[in-house]
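Figure S4 source data
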Amino acid sequence: MKEILKRNAKDQVFKNLLHDRKILAQFYNDLTGRKIKPEDIKYDTIAKTIVKGQEEDIAFQIGSIFIILIEAQSSWKIVNIIRFACYMFQLFLNFIDDHIEEIFESGKNITIPAVEAYIIYTGSRDLPEEVSLKNFPNQVNSMINASMKIVSLKNAIGYVEQYIKFSMKETEYYNSNKRTKSDIIELIDYCINNNILKEYLIKHSREVINMIENYFTEERRIQSIVNDEVNKAINEEQQKHKIELEKEQQQRKIEKQKYKMELEKEQQQHKIELNKEQQKYQIEQQKLKIELREQREKNIIDLAEKLKMSPEEIANFTESSVDYINEVLDKNKHS
């Protein structure tokens, strides 16, 4: 987005500068070394049509030559040659439509217009002075070709060189975040004092300041929108993370509750089993106690018969006494 804004600001200055036929004539002469006059330049319908939709590009006619100036850009893209090829073919199609009767009139010679294309490069890369479709590997042997000249600071003179210097200086201010109105005025003063588009900037300084200031203002507005969108996205992401965290915490709470219930269930089951064991033990103890009592009663009855005493009398003896008497009787019996 910033690159588009930056390019648009330069394009506005570029088109405003070359809108003046006198400057455009000098600009073209500096590009080509020719000596055309402002009145030689023609803005016809065909030239305007082929660059329709590309406000940054300029097309005009000098005699039978159509000239296309591609936007002044600090970033180079090889696709520009394809853009020019599209212009060229559109120009031929428009020419055929305008001269259809002459073309099909027997014996009539038709001069097909020549096409020249230049790209004004304001970046720092070292680019070739000419590029064509043949630069694409799969187009080396193609029967269709289109070529355009690249003009940069290393091979520019006159108005072209001045415009490139102005554009590079504007980029320097932009990249240094010097974007206030006073910074823009400082930029214009610098260029005037260093003979960079001096005549044009003295005459159109207010327009240029407004163009650059407007795009800086628009850049700040769009940056504000971008920041709002970024903050919105961050808030949405934070809210999403919060919901996921709450969901995760809720899931952990459910799992913890489930574990607690399972543990309580296990403890309850263990308690039930323990109670069963205790009850079983108590029953066995009770059973053993009954068996011992019954055995003692039997022992008393047996001893009473041996001693010719009543069981009630024997019952007063201690258990150890009963056992001792039985033991003595048993020995006497065997002896």
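Figure S5 source data
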Amino acid sequence: MRSISADSAILLVPDAHLSSSSATFRPIRMTFGARTVLLVGLVAAISLALWHLDLAAVGRAFTGMSWGWGLTAAAVNLTGLVVDAWRWRFVITAERPVPLRHTFRALVAGVIGNVVMPLKLGDGARTLLISRSDGLSAATALTTVLLDRLIDSATLPLFVGLASLVLPLPASITKYRPLMWLIVIVTTLLITLAGYLIRRQPVREASLETGRTLERVLAGLAALGHASRLVKLVGTGLLSWSVRALVIWCMIQAFHLPLSPAAAVSTLAAIYLSGAISPTPGNLASFELAAAGALGLWGVSGDTGLSLGIATHALEILPTLALGLAMGVRPGRAAASRPTPAQESAR
């Protein structure tokens, strides 16, 4: 694996011109213009938000925060990491058995990497660690990470759609309910088709190198070929989003806001949709602005909404960083000690 720079890649893909045994990956580069547009837009949004904020009111909102609820939110967030590791394990174990502690440790490494690198580039560390610890080829490991991301993203509209049936979500969210169900239906059909093709169509090797690469990629997609495993993936995906919504609800309680769980769901959706396009490491600023904007739909002042967003983000990141350090997780060390081509070819 090549080292990943924070400003040069979105994700890693196999080098088509290299032998699959070397498991070398190259970055897909984001154009300078696209990076500039995203950064300028974010800076403009931050400037506009700060222009209209009363920083003294933001400080007062922090001082009134309940640390009991805040620490509860941090504990719930760490529980959510276990759920995410559990879901990813379902993806990997379709190929080979993997202990939950290994997926959890690699997932924490990915979270730490994403704190310092934008656009989910920390997933490179996640890929490397699981590849090293469990003997997966780099192509297979990367494919499982991308599939796990896909399942996670695909279950968000399902979660919000189900929540909208039982919770009084604002019109700004419910008006997209048909689109959410359409996404769920289309995703389900595509996954079903992919699973069918994986079960029915053997890999035909155009060349030795290409054939091996395809075999390793398909190994990472093996979970799509098992209906019972897909049910588990969707179930753990919904559980993961439920836990994340619970984190937001705990923070709403911490700031003494008389809001229903529906506010937590809509705020969660806004935060994670903003994170999908955020160019900043750890979704910095976009997370806080999205939280403030979503809570504004429920009548929460911008000062309090921004304070809640800052506190929530900090309580999600800092305990995870501390846990990673306690576990000896070092994303940079993982990259430095990556497997050699000879080790990869032996897998």
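Residues 31-331 form one domain. The radius of gyration is 21 Å.
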